Amino acid sequence: MTTDESIVKALQARLADLTRRVGDIDSELRKPLSADFSEQAAELENQDALGAIENSELQEIHQIQVALKRIDEGTYGDLRQLRRTNRPQASQGAADRDQMHRVCHVRPRRHSGRLA
């Protein structure tokens, strides 16, 4: 499998995961509020947080779709080659992950001591 194929596969997997999660969030946001006013307050706070997460994930979905379109059109490779010649050597796994983030214009997420 070439690097481009592995990047496309990783992007498609991430896109499928995000699409599923956005659907789950949307379903949760459509649930009716409980009759108890104190519970409604907590539910509304949760809905605000879920709405923010949904918006963030929708932005990432858009970025991935744009990246996949660029790869499909062949406009992605020219930039990749230029960046590769100016980048110090790294392990292939890290290079693939970094490349995927550059293609999507997304900053890599920071993990506290462990990978997700």
H and E order: HHHH
Number of strands: 0
Taking the sheet with the most strands, its summary is: none
Terminal-residue CA separation: 24 Å
What gyration radius follows from the Cα positions, in whole Å? 19 Å
Structural class: mainly alpha
Shape, per Cα inertia axes = rod-shaped
**Uncertain runs:** 106-116
Averaging pLDDT over every residue, what do you get?
A: 79
Tally of DSSP helical segments: 4
Would you mind describing this structure in some detail?
The radius of gyration is 19 Å and the shape is rod-shaped. The protein has helices at 3-30, 37-73, 76-85, 92-104. The protein contains four helices and no strands. The chain starts with a helix and ends in a 12-residue tail after the last helix.
